[in-house]
Amino acid sequence: MKDYKPPFTITNEILTYVSSISEKVGRITATSNMEAKPHLRKNNRIKSIHASLRIEANSLSLGQVRDVINGKTVLGEQKEIQEVKNAYAAYEKLAEIDPFDIQDLKAFHGIMTKYLVDESGDFRRGEEGVFNGDQCIFMAPPAKFVPQLMDDLFHWMKSAQKDVHPLILSSVFHYEFVFIHPFSDGNGRMARLWHTAILSKWKPVFEYIPIESQVEKFQEDYYNAIAKCHISGESTDFIAFMLSQIDKILDDISVQITEDSELLSEYVKRLLDAMQYDTPYTSAALMEKLGLKSKEGFRRNYLHPAIELNLVRMTLPDKPNSRNQRYVKL
Questions:
Q1: Burial status of residue 184 (CB atoms within 10 A of its CB: 0-12, 13-18, 19 or more)
Q2: Backbone phi, then psi, for 195, in 5-degree steps?
Q3: Longest Cα pair distance anywhere in the chain, in angstroms?
Q4: Nearest partner of 196 among 205, 183, 187, 186, judged by Cα
Q5: From residue 64, how far is each of 58, 61, 76, 127 by CA, in Å?
Q6: CA dist., res. 145 & res. 147, Å (int)
Q7: Which residues of the chain have pLDDT under 50?
Q8: Minimal CA–CA distance to 326: which of 312, 315, 313, 310?
Q9: Which residue in 193, 234, 242, 238 sits closest to 5, CA to CA?
């Protein structure tokens, strides 16, 4: 149906959140240069991936997710490790997504579910439902309707992008996508990835804002908002919920940026500037780069503060004084 329009109502609460979020994004963009804070960007991306997978019952800890992304060996279920690798590959290409292209959606589902799903990159051919134990909470539309429903949704998005604010449009898409449940697996991960992709096209800073971690904190409320919309037949409650979470995470990001600026001494900044990412250095090599001669001064002023701030890690954390010890910028 070319004239299809997802049902939702723009309330005063929603408009208030749109105004608040827009103001906070403007302030963050104006007062902080995320490009100059790659450690914050990477840490937030890892948080996004960990939270989005945790919502789907992936049991790996934040540290284990970080280690998988950094290429370290992790003891864990192979399926869960592969989910992390796939999600990182997808999020690393976030800037390349055209969120209004249904073929991009299928391609990124292929990335997100590589080696995990038989129908990876294709719409489901079987029937799907959402269960709580043995109880069926929600039955998705029959598989035969999925292609048309998705075409209608993407056609609406393309036609509405000039008239509907991206904050509202992304939330409507998120709910409608979850309702249609177009894939046999990975629907939640894809809904959250696409939500971020839509917002990133509006304001690039959203590429590094871990909305997923905020949703994960309020996971029960997330599912309750979806359930309310299933009953009401429109996405208004879900829009308000998502905007409230985005508004909260922006407050956390502002604090994070302020603390980062205050905590980073000139010594630590010099150390980070001297190091390349994921490259192991000996302490002697770092001292030479910085033109330092005092081991004690280097450790006290440069190395130990950077490790405590989780900006640099030891390759042998259990053997801090090993002659084989190396230091890697995170």
A1: buried
A2: -60, -50
A3: 73
A4: 205
A5: 11, 5, 9, 34
A6: 6
A7: none
A8: 315
A9: 234
Which tokens sit at 322?
């090993």
Extended beta strands in the chain, E state: 129-132, 135-139, 312-314, 327-329
Backbone angles phi, psi at 139, to 5 degrees: -105, 125
CATH architecture observed for domain 12-261: Orthogonal Bundle (1.10)
Task: Give helix 12-31 / helix 236-263 axis angle, nearest 10°.
Answer: 20
Structure token pair of residue 193: 């990835």
Rounded-to-integer distance, Cα 15 and Cα 59, Å: 37
At residue 75, φ and ψ (nearest 5 deg) are -85, 115
Model pTM? Answer: 0.79
3-state secondary structure of 234: coil
CA torsion through residues 251, 28, 65, 133, sign: positive
Q: Is 75 exposed, middle or buried (0-12, 13-18, 19+ CB in 10 A)?
A: exposed
The pLDDT of residue 279 is: 84
Go through the chain and tell me how many residues it has. Answer: 330
Count other C-beta atoms under 10 Å from residue 60's C-beta: 21
Q: What is the DSSP annotation of 120-179? A: TTS--SS--EEEETTEEEEEPPPGGGHHHHHHHHHHHHHHHTTTS-HHHHHHHHHHHHHH
In eight-state DSSP terms, residue 35 is G
Token pair, residue 44, equals: 């937030």
Q: Which of 27, 33, 177, 163 is nearest to 105 (CA)?
A: 177
